Amino acid sequence: MKTIFTISPASGVGIAGLVIFWLAGSAGAGIFNTKHNLGSTGLNAASNFSGTREICVFCHTPHGGDGEAAVPIWNRHLDPNGFQTYDQMGTTTLDARVEEVGSVSLACLSCHDGTQAMDALLNEPGSGREYPGFFNGTWSGQAASVDGRLGPTTVVTNLAKDLTNDHPIGIQFAGGGYSLSNPEGPGKDPDFNRAESDIMGASRVWWVNTEVPGGTTKFERTDMKLYTRIATAGAYVGEPQPYVECASCHDPHVDNNPTFLRIDPQGSAVCLTCHNK
């Protein structure tokens, strides 16, 4: 379940401080023993960096983050250029609009397109120096075997810029039809399961419920999360509507399942959460 905090201006607690506390206490605890702990304390990581014991810094910073990023206080350089997307294959079965690579997926790809060293940060730990002033340290492991970058394109962690052989991202859910003015969607679709919708905070959000023990009809992190973008074409152009992104299926902070999947993939459960086959 999602916990929402209200903060009084007179409380004396900084917003950034609370965000970092949440990242350290929640995300930090969750990723300590995962491959996303790239610091020197990483126990199960495919690659570790000797230059810092910090964990969150490889993605987040309390100060000087990228204000254009779709994720909080992002600490990496975003490059939306040069991607090849699934729709460029020309497949006749694609009936949804694919937007340019952006939203949370662009943040994921700032590591996983393999073009940047993983210590190429906006704000390095302690120093405040900006890229390309890398902080001192060395990498170990295969995942960062080339100058601190992800390994060759033969490893799944390095998706590169060609995304035509990957599940489409930045794609309207269920071929489109869901939008701010039509939150319940187009009705029964023989190819897709229904997306749930609710107002959280001041915004409408969408997700697809998963069949997990103890699950509820409310949004949980084990559900397939859909990310709101403004459609530039297709159904309900110009309106906020749900899109499938990298983090729809993967939760970067928890690796209870292979490759940080939100649910166990046995029996194609991840696929069948959205696809009615």
In round numbers, the mean pLDDT is 85
Spatial ordering of strands, largest sheet: 3-7-6-5-4
Structural class: little secondary structure
Question: In percent terms, what proportion of residues is strand?
Answer: 5-15%
Number of helices: 4
Q: What Rg is obtained from the alpha carbons, in whole angstroms?
A: 19 Å
Overall helicity:
10-25%
Shape: globular
Total beta-strand segments: 7
Characterization of this structure:
- By secondary structure, the protein is low in regular secondary structure.
- It is about 15% helix and about 10% strand.
- The chain is built from four helices and seven strands, in the order H-E-H-E-E-E-E-E-E-H-H.
- Residues about 1-30 have low confidence and may be disordered.
